[in-house]
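Reading a protein record of the kind used here takes little practice once its layout is understood. The reader may check this reading against the record printed directly beneath this paragraph.
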Amino acid sequence: MNGKYKWIVNESRRLHEAGVTPAVCDKILYEHAIELCQMAAIEELFGDVKECERRYMSAQVLLHSLVQRHPLHPHHRTTLSKYRDAVQRRLNCLKGPRKIMDVKLEAGIS
């Protein structure tokens, strides 16, 4: 995750140096995070939990990086924080039942 975050920061700097405004960069990152969440939901429907988790985690990193940006309108910060928290809850739901099942399997309980 740290590597992805650093890549995002470097890409953002590169785009800024190329003359692309931060608002455009933020919009691209936001739209990509939303796409990742949509694809994760589809992966979840088809049962590919690993890929689903990977996509949600990537979206969470992007949303977190957007929340940390300065300056950011308070309304936008609140909205992005809600989205980020919703992705975190989804990840917790995905991990929770599987952890319980893993423990049951290890104990020989079906």
Summary: The chain is about 85% helix and 0% strand. The radius of gyration is 17 Å. The helical segments are 2-17, 22-45, 49-67, 74-107.
